[in-house]
Design goal:
Elements: H1 3-17, H2 22-25, H3 67-70, E1 78-82, H4 88-97, E2 102-107, H5 110-121, E3 128-132, E4 145-151, H6 160-170, E5 171-185, H7 190-194, H8 196-200, E6 207-208, H9 209-218, E7 221-232, H10 236-239, H11 245-253, E8 257-267
Parallel strand pairs: 1-2, 1-4, 2-3, 4-5, 5-6
Antiparallel strand pairs: 5-8, 7-8
């Protein structure tokens, strides 16, 4: 598929998800009774409920880690959340930056931006904003943010080199990012790679772990550190929508594996 086609898939599917509750996302990408498939979008998600600042209405269960917890966010920081969804990580991050800091959430899907803004309206916070934008070409000035966070979103970006180049551009010198994402060991079966729904569910767009880290290095980031790593088990009933029983058996005994990683890296000072 062409990059623009993949982006349309992401916008369409996450536009539907924006209208759902977390409980719907555990059952289907469509919700309701007319189910189009069984992609469980919460299969990767971690539990945010113990974190201060947690807003249940902003939690759609779409993450694959807890990047905000590992981001080292400080009081007065200016934080950018890539793929901010309904605002989950932004509300948690706000607890750390306090009233003098600032949180900006950017999402490719306007329905998600609107949902996040509605959640924000229910608070008295004046230092959070939600903007529609493309991570490959962000509508922000150079050297603006102290910290960039993102939770299970870079997989949905066709050109990850562009995405990390943009992250470097908008970070202040000495700033850093903390990103949770899905990576692979080995090569996914071709049918899974080609499945549009699995792409929108963060699997088919995953890169090999070493390739992912190499892209980060190629954009000049330093002090790369994996804060957390866990193996993800995709339920058989989901995989069987794309591969046969025989292919599933081979997949399970292969060295192919899907992992969630949370990685930190810093933009170096220049000049």
């Amino acid at each position: 598929m062409k990059p623009e086609d993949l982006k349309l898939i992401v916008q369409e599917k996450y536009g539907e998800i924006a209208l759902q509750r977390k409980s719907d996302n555990k059952n289907s990408c469509c919700g309701g009774t007319s189910c189009c498939d069984e992609v469980n979008y919460t299969v990767f998600s971690d539990d945010y409920t113990p974190l201060e600042g947690y807003n249940a209405e902003a939690d759609l269960g779409l993450g694959c880690g807890l990047p905000t917890q590992h981001a080292g966010i400080k009081k007065n920081d200016h934080v950018l959340d890539l793929g901010s969804g309904a605002g989950n990580d932004c509300f948690v991050a706000r607890k750390w930056v306090g009233e003098e800091g600032k949180i900006t959430g950017v999402d490719f899907t306007m329905a998600m931006v609107e949902k996040a803004r509605k959640n924000l309206e229910k608070t008295d916070f004046k230092n959070i904003e939600f903007i529609q934008g493309d991570i490959e070409d962000m509508p922000f000035s150079d050297n603006t943010y102290d910290v960039v966070i993102s939770n299970c979103v870079l997989n949905l970006v066709p050109d990850k080199i562009k995405a990390f180049r943009e992250i470097s551009r908008v970070l202040k010198p000495g700033g850093h990012f903390c990103i949770s994402d899905v990576v692979l060991a080995g090569i996914l079966p071709a049918k899974l790679q080609e499945a549009a729904e699995m792409y929108a569910g963060c699997v088919s767009g995953a890169l090999h772990k070493n390739e992912y880290l190499d892209i980060i290095r190629s954009q000049g980031f330093q002090h790369i550190e994996i804060k957390e790593e866990k193996k993800i088990e995709i339920p058989d009933n989901i995989l069987l929508q794309y591969i046969s029983n025989d292919e599933l058996r081979k997949f399970k005994v292969s060295e192919v594996a899907i992992y969630s990683i949370t990685v930190n890296a810093s933009k170096v000072f220049t000049g």
